[in-house]
What does this fold into?
Amino acid sequence: MNLFVRLIDIIYPPRCPICQNFVRNDDPDDKNTASPICRDCFYDLREIRSPLCPICGRPFVTGIETDHLCESCLRKRPYFDSVTAPYLFEGALMTAIHRFKYDSKRFLSDYLGPLLARFAESRLDKSDDLLAMPIPLHPKRLRERGFNQSLLLATHVARRLNTELDFLSLRRVRYTPPQTGLGKEERRKNVKSAFQLEDPKIVKGRRILLIDDVATTGNTLNECARILKRSGSGKVLCLVLARAGSL
It folds into this structure.
């Protein structure tokens, strides 16, 4: 079988799922992904490190070198309890996420999903009351895109954590324009009352793990957390693959 795989690789050399360049034999290879990533893209992934805000998860570039609350979270505490992400939304990862969402490259979930799942496993305290929920798409947007990228990522995370996945209870009931290109206040208004929970009993008293691909201002996550908290949920922990911006 190994000989056959090597022969296929010679005839059809593997390409990096992000940049499409040919992958060399010495490039990083992850056995839990559909295909290896090239060296250039692998080392272009920028991990988020302390200091950062322990609530919204945005990293600080200057100042105090320990984690501390940012000004926004001090002024107005979000409904969610935390946002965590492994990487900054830039470079190769930004390219990969854009191709994933907007170019219908669904296969990229086989690479991006395990990245997020391994991060979740290393950071989250697993327990029986944890319920994973992806950020939902409006039915119209789902028809346009053909898949919900957050659900594909959440499937990998829930499988790795061995926790329940609910992708039906939280619904997007109002069609909104994309958040991209909107200012902070416009983003907040754009998602206001855009979500609805089918049955509050499903989340009552449970820790919720909200999963999305990217967090920028955090307004979408916060609006979903608002709905969940007002329906009686416990802590709402947000997990995203990439976090935009530094403080």
